[in-house]
## 1
Amino acid sequence: LCGLAARGGSGCVVLFKVLESSEDGAVVRDIDGAVERLGDDSHVPLMEWLGARGKEWYVYRNAIMMLGNLGFVAAADDVRRFLSHPHPRVREEAVGALYKMQGEAAVRDIQPLVRDRDKAVVKKAVTTLARLKCRNPFFLQALADLFRGGKDRDPAPDELLLVGLDAVAQIGAFAVDDVDIRDILVERLEAGGSMLNKLFKKRKAAEDSEVVRAATCGTLGHIGDQQTARSLEPFCKDASPLVRERASDAMRIIAARGQA
């Protein structure tokens, strides 16, 4: 691979031919490293590869990944159209590449993917927007909806809830429709801790796992105020040792912040 990279543009074409016949992750990583060593010599062949029609989905994913790793800003317009590609792994890679190419300028294009039908794409979009400290109303609404219960909403899987909690911790407190995200999280935490709600399943929030409930306490510690701390007090005596620990830690963090 190093020898092919040393040949410049002609070597790049050979490397791409290998990629077209393999989905193997190790092969992709090795060739990606060789393409990075090619630098500018790889831009034109990569763009031609990206523009070719009728290729397997992983061909486009690989080209997008490499262009992102190269930070080739001029490719942003071409990569952007793959945000709506039928295959979720291509959409997911396009989110990451646009972030690397454009930073904050990619927020508007990435935002709609927080409501994608594929959870891995949603995770990538939420994580990326949180890293950019995005506080656009559309994104904040999507985060709030992730934690709100209701008969018209399917319960979010734990992995999405955990990503959402991490995003809220990074962004900080906010309100949607005059409802504070801290109140939404406390309400969900209270519903999950109620044995009556668990027995009758009156709310979807009551099905949160111990890990999610503990992570909710952690996020409240990052963004909470004194009112939040008072709401956390009952969870210091929760049946779950993990929830008790995180609730106590959260109260200490809020108290220390108030004294700073």
## 2
Amino acid sequence: ALDIARLTSSQASMAIALGWLGDYFAILGDYLTAQSYVGQALGICRELRTPLCEAKFLGQLARIYYGVGEHKTTKRYCESLLAIIQQIDAPEIKGEAQTFLGHALAANNEQSAAATAYEAAIQLRQELGQPHAEISPMVGLAAIRQAEGRADEALELVEKCLTWLSAHGTVGVESPVLVHLKMYYILKNAASPEKSFQVLEIAYHTLQRYAEMFSDDALRYQYLNHVKAHRHLLKLWGEKETTHFSTGSRSISQSEVPD
């Protein structure tokens, strides 16, 4: 795609191709390469003075930096994106920005602000009729409610997400493996070992299903081991016989869940 864009001398096509490459390397956990490609795409959009294009790649960079664990940078990109969105009509990009702003704020223990961002994302997705895109902010909100001591609300949100996922699957859901991993910790903190193990099992098999899409062994290994959340899930799965029925350990905060 990048070669074709170069042949056509189209700057817009070049930006799109660079964005695709950024997504590809981010999926594999090669965040430095992903940052480079998406940063180039963002630069092109700024040269072309196209706010929608700029907003799209700011959002992509926010996702990448969240994957790296640089939450302050994630927050900054989301806020920049949301400032641009005020000028244009791009509700889907806005919804994604609100979700990742919530993630970044939660990781920085800014719980109240994170809840506000998550609630805004959920409301926007409801207005757009996109229940699949409600899952990630809803799980994030559940973790906050649990941290606030509102355990019943947290479990109600998790149950709602699990019911929807059971009926509709993970297609279109943002970071389905990480979503299940977060729900696992919410349930584990709620001293619900059997339910938490069921979610851990779903997370593991979801990860393996996605990994099987890579026919190349080296790429499959990279996907499984270079993404922090995937690596952490594999570690949990390997330890499941000794850990999943334990209820005496301390509660895990959302900021400790791998990105």
## 3
Amino acid sequence: LREEETAKCYSITGKKVGVCYWTSVDEYDRAITIIEDTFKENGYHIRTADSNMEIIYKNCQASEELVGEAVKSFQQAKVDLIFAVGSPVSAIIKRFLRGLDVPVVCLGVYNPIVLGFLDLDEHDNLYAACYAVDIKEQFKNTIGCISPEIKKLGLMYKAGELQSEIQHDEIRKLTSKLNIKLVAHDVQSEEEFPKVLDLLQDEEVEWLILEADTMVANASRASIETFAHRIPTMCLLENTINRGGLIGYVASWDDVCR
């Protein structure tokens, strides 16, 4: 210090963070917990007497309109950072970022294709943490090891959900290359599971792929176990394995979110 200066004590100043997610899913709840824990580990206090951070949460209830309203509310609140949790909301939120000079972190995105084309001059503050392992590697390290002579593969996907359709395309291309017949069913809700399971068994599929989509992510443990008990399942999401799926070659959701 020079003679005319005195030591100063610096502390973390108050910050505001916006977090939006598509709907209530266990993975999104887990991501939110990790966001809060990480901030706390780095000196921030949330919902305490000495709080130096406010986190504003927006459940978009599977509505594109509510994603836009969430971004608008974050802008009005003058947040310092925005988290978009999960593929569905991340695919949509970029439409509402024009003129918004706030960093946006898309967390738990299936892969960069979900975000589509980005003009980096307009979205230079957008970042993404993706969890998809290349589908060829997933297949090679699971079904390819156990049933290398497989001829017929089942798949459930959710039409209209971008990350599900991307996975469907990847799997369709892979099975075509490997000369495996793909039997794919569009399933929109858990209530359809028993009917689809009967169809898959009638079609004599040897394995079933359970995608990383909101339909599977929201399914009960009992439903996942029912599939796994009747047809061997390859899972594209870590928590599907934890809830009774047979096998998967996947990234750790917690590591991706951290």
## 4
Amino acid sequence: TWLGARWALVSILSGSVLCALVLRYFLIILSGGLEEDFIAWGLKNYFGGITGGYLGAAKTLADTGVYTLYGYPPGYAAFVAILHKFGLGEPTEIRLVQAGLDALGCLIAYWLAARMFKSRVAGLVPAGLYAVMPLWTFGAGAMLAEAFSPLFLLSVLALMWRFKERASWPRALAIGLVIAVAALFRPDLILLMGPAGLWVIWHAFRKPWAPMAALVAGFAILILPWGLFNLHHNGKFRVTGAAGFYGLWTGVGQAPN
């Protein structure tokens, strides 16, 4: 029956989210979750100095409202600072919150695929894959801004598909806002403005000006303050991080581990 099929769908989708949570939880425990000094563990096992910088900047931001980690966009540190305000300041607590948020990516993956292929059953496949793929299950618990990249990318794709279904300036504005937030975590995600702009023009080709203006405005309203902050503190208008050469795109891959 229709009701039975719906309950089966909800059960499978809920199972995917639960599976995602369980896998991420165990990987967090296995990767330094029980260590007394997570930063020391991080320095030994990955580029943990960045994590220490984020934690220090987040605590300062939470306590004083001042951002001090000038070389990196403020998104991740601001996220950790908010958790500090709610009494969640330990690395394992922060990582578990990240894992919980990332598990919601299963729902976005389901929605996007179900809309694209016009099949709810088809949506279950990417939802399940998102739950178990090793790169995402491990990355969700990393105390790095990159932990949020998959969730941001999925969110932008879902909003772009919504725009395709009905082109309007509020939907274009939402795309720009989410890309800006993503870029304040990981500056390489600024590049999403390119395909997003082409997408908006293509699907609003008769009257593209209002949606394009909304897309750019949504992006600029959040990213420009970061550029002005850098201009004031560093003398350079910069809307990315301070990483040079290919480190801007590869994150910590430029440095030896």
